[in-house]
Amino acid sequence: MKPITIFLGVSLLLFSSHCLGAMGISLIDLDTLTILDAKAQGKLSFAARGAFNPNKTQPELKSSHYGECIDVRIKNNSPTALVVKLENGTVLHSQISHTQNMLVTKTAYYTLKPNEKYLGRITAICGELHKNAPDIYVSYEVGKLASPELCRLTAAIETTNEQNMAGQYAVWAVSDKATSKELGENFEILKKSQELLQQAQIVFNIFGTANDKFATLPTQPKRNAPTEEQYAQRQVVLDTTDLTVETIAVQQTGGNEGIRIGETSWQDDSDHLWLALAGAMLVLFLVLFFTLNRKY
């Protein structure tokens, strides 16, 4: 292959990467496996449990219901480096029937070397009002994405950083059709919850006015939502023996603050321009490549 062909190829690759980067798209996004897919392919093992420990003082744990309230252990079982993502909106299925399923509310990326282990905490929120909150005795299995409504809502929670009671009430409004009748009458929190529902384009009146067709509550045993004081839980350093029988050193791989899928705005015409330029450059390169190879 002629040097000019190599030069054109490298130039195109760099330019295309710049175009995609200008739109907030990374090439790593296109190939990154979800934890569910990687687990199904046998490339990694994944274990999760509630972070709240009723037997210890936990000064940094905001709540057992929302925020960084789930401990995870991930191990790369493959012989090559692995980049995986835990997407916003992923359902974590409780292995105990009376404990709530959880929804991931912040996308996380993990980069693991062969056989490397990661121990840490993920951001999630409770998804079933009428069940118990998770604790260290409740394990979870990673599942698929939640319904489109809940995915839009968890995306809004991440965007606004409402990893709090407002976000929790909004989720229960969707999952349980809960209104102020069950959630309490804290107007400021309910107002923020209603704003999250509107941002997620969900038609529901969390204040439960009489003329709202979505305000009917489900016919199941009533259980009042926890108060703000009841949410004030405590955090404990991860006890690895509850997730695995071996002693493992925590390895922070720096993947949690990675690029997040779904944040690129396609409403901006400049994004289309960058994509068109990248496509045009690809076509130009192919034409030049075949022309030069025939010529020489």
Report on the architecture of this protein.
The protein has 296 residues and is of the alpha+beta class. The chain is 35% helix and 19% strand. It has helices spanning 3-22, 27-31, 35-40, 148-160, 165-175, 180-183, 187-199, 228-231, 269-295, and strands at residues 33-34, 44-50, 66-76, 82-86, 90-94, 102-104, 108-112, 117-126, 139-145. The strands form 2 sheets. The protein has a 6-stranded antiparallel β-barrel. It has a 3-stranded mixed β-sheet with strand order 1-4-7.
Can you lay out the helices and strands and say which pair or pack?
Elements lengths: L2 H20 L4 H5 L1 E2 H6 L3 E7 L15 E11 L5 E5 L3 E5 L7 E3 L3 E5 L4 E10 L12 E7 L2 H13 L4 H11 L4 H4 L3 H13 L28 H4 L37 H27 L1
Parallel strand pairs: 1-4
Antiparallel strand pairs: 2-3, 2-9, 3-8, 4-7, 5-6, 5-9, 6-8
Helix pairs in contact: 1-9, 4-5, 5-7
Whole-angstrom Rg: 23 Å
Number of discrete helical segments: 9
Q: Based on Cα principal axes, name the global outline.
A: flat
Give the SSE string: HHEHEEEEEEEEHHHHHH
Main sheet: strand order: 2-3-8-6-5-9
Helix and strand composition category: alpha+beta
DSSP summary, beta strand count: 9
Give the number of domains.
2
**Span between termini:** 9 Å
In round numbers, the mean pLDDT is: 77
Largest sheet: 6 strands, antiparallel, barrel
Q: Which range does the strand content fall in?
A: 15-25%
Low-pLDDT parts are 20-30, 210-222, 231-242, 244-271
The helix content is: 25-40%
